[in-house]
Amino acid sequence: MRPVRVVHTFAVSVSEAELCWYDTGRWPGWVDGLDAVLETRAPWPQVGGVVRWESGPAGRGRVVETVIDYTPADGQTVQVSDDTVTARQSVSFTAVPAGVEVTLELEYRITRRSPLTPLVDVLFVRRAMTQSLGRSLERFGLRLSGG
What we know:
CATH class: Alpha Beta
Order of helices and strands: EHEEEEEEH
Helix content: 10-25%
Strand content: 35-45%
Structural class: alpha+beta
CATH superfamily: START domain
Strand order of the largest sheet: 1-7-6-5-4-3-2
CATH architecture: 2-Layer Sandwich
Largest sheet: 7 strands, antiparallel
Number of helices: 2
Number of strands: 7
Radius of gyration: 15 Å
CATH topology: Alpha-D-Glucose-1,6-Bisphosphate, Chain A, domain 4
C-alpha cells in the first residue's frame, strides 16, 4: 500500500476537533468529494462502526468506511473501500501549544490494475490523493472555526 499524509494545526482543543470529526452529519461540508452520507451504523466511531457515503457524479461512487481501531482523544483508523481503491485511513489528534494537530494518513492500493498502474499512480493518483486529503483538512479547519 502507498501512504499519503497531511498535517494541519487548528486553534481548538482535541475534544472539539474530535467531536467535529466523528459527526458524520457534518461531513458533506468538509470531506472532499462527498455528496451524501447514506448510513452511519453503530458503534460509530468505535471499532465495528460503519459509514457508507456517496460521492458526486465525477467522484468515487459509493464508499464504505469500517472502523478497525479507535482510541478516544487520540484517533481512529478505518478500512476504506470503493470501486477503485482499498485503503486504511487514519486520523490522529495531538494536543500542541497552538491547539490541536490533526494528522490524516491514507495507505491505499489501486484495485483496478494494468501494466501502467504503477506509472499512473506515481504521476497522478498519489498527488491527487494528497491534494484531496489536504482539501478535506482545510475545510475541516473552516468548520472548526465556525466557517
